[in-house]
Design goal:
Length: 137
């Protein structure tokens, strides 16, 4: 990671302090993506599915960007997330796919409580720390 080392406790404090902003950013940014993905999978042909599967990879940094930089402009976070992911593509892939595969594996065995209580919060903090290192704050 580039930049300063960020303490986990400082990241958690900031995340909990901005929890309401995070929920607003989540609803205004991720909900349209879910609706778009539904329509793509339901009504369009399957040759469009491959690029659509990469959308979650490029959406990794939306919530940290909305929390720390663009809380009032969540759509700006989408642009910054795509830009940050493209500039740090290998690190983004390493942060995204192992957690995705672990989450799918645990969900298939009915261990969804482990995904919600442990995997998602740990993944969010890891992405936030990586994002803060990449933007140099």
């Amino acid at each position: 990671m580039k930049g300063k080392d960020i303490e986990f406790s400082k990241t958690w404090k900031t995340a909990f302090k901005n929890l309401s902003k995070m929920y607003v950013a989540f609803l205004t940014v991720y909900l349209p993506w879910v609706i778009l993905l539904y329509f793509l999978f339901e009504y369009w042909s399957f040759f469009i599915v491959i690029p659509v599967l990469l959308l979650p990879l490029f959406s990794v940094y939306i919530l940290p960007d909305a929390l720390f930089r663009n809380a009032n402009y969540p759509w700006k976070s989408v642009v910054n997330s795509f830009k940050t992911t493209w500039e740090n593509l290998i690190e983004s892939i390493v942060l995204f796919f192992p957690f995705l595969l672990a989450g799918i594996y645990l969900l298939l065995f009915g261990l969804w409580i482990l995904v919600i209580c442990f995997l998602l919060p740990f993944w969010f903090v890891l992405i936030t720390v990586a994002y803060m290192g990449e933007i140099g704050e």
